[in-house]
Design goal:
By secondary structure, this protein is an all-alpha fold. The protein has 8 helices and no strands.
Length: 214
């Protein structure tokens, strides 16, 4: 009986390993596909939008967006990576603590950029940079709030939902940007699209994981 149970356990372990391997390979394929689609959309979108609004306006938006993204990456402080890679499965309280911390840090970074926007703008010396930065910074709390939910999906190897949400958010942003660009809003069309993308991605991650931060 002992040998039968051992064989059964080995069989189950083998099936589990094959299932895990299949999920990893499938997830990797989804992520690769997502990167290719995202890259294609970014290149086509950039070429079209630069042609419509001009390199100056696009450059001002890119500079403001780059500053926000850099500060946001610093503010994450490896919390998302920790939630994905920690040995023990994080509890609901762990996700709540992470969400609270990211939300607080997001608000602090937003306030910091709002207060230092004039100083950064005087150093960069790009017209429209400061007002664009001030509005883009408002989306930082949403980015932090989405991180815990997205980490939960990635830890469960549910890359399909991650890819669908992130790609859907990128497509949705262009659905906002293109009409506004055609209406003559210039760089502000990109700001509106970015803001809409962050809010929609955050909402989608929370709905997909049925997670309610506390």
């Amino acid at each position: 009986m002992g040998e039968i149970r051992s064989g059964g356990m080995e069989s189950n372990d083998g099936e589990d390993n094959r299932g895990l391997k299949q999920r990893v390979l499938t997830g990797g394929a989804f992520m690769l596909g997502r990167q290719m689609v995202s890259l294609a959309l970014s290149i086509l979108g950039a070429l079209l939008i630069v042609r419509l609004i001009g390199p100056h306006s696009y450059g001002a938006y890119s500079a403001a967006s780059g500053v926000c993204q850099y500060v946001q990456n610093l503010g994450q402080a490896g919390i998302g990576v920790y939630l994905i890679r920690v040995a023990e499965r994080p509890s609901k309280r762990d996700y709540d603590v992470a969400s609270t911390l990211l939300l607080v840090v997001g608000f602090m970074l937003m306030i910091t950029l709002e207060c230092s926007g004039h100083l950064i703008g005087s150093w960069i010396k790009i017209e429209e940079f400061q007002p664009l930065l001030s509005v883009l910074a408002l989306a930082m709390p949403f980015q932090g709030l989405a991180l815990s939910a997205s980490a939960s999906l990635e830890r469960n190897l549910d890359f399909r939902k991650v890819v669908m949400i992130e790609t859907g958010g990128q497509i949705a942003s262009y659905l906002v940007v293109v009409p506004l660009v055609l209406c003559g809003f210039g760089a502000w069309a990109l700001v509106a699209g970015s803001f809409f993308q962050q809010i929609s991605i955050c909402s989608a991650f929370l709905v997909a994981t049925r997670y309610r931060p506390r």
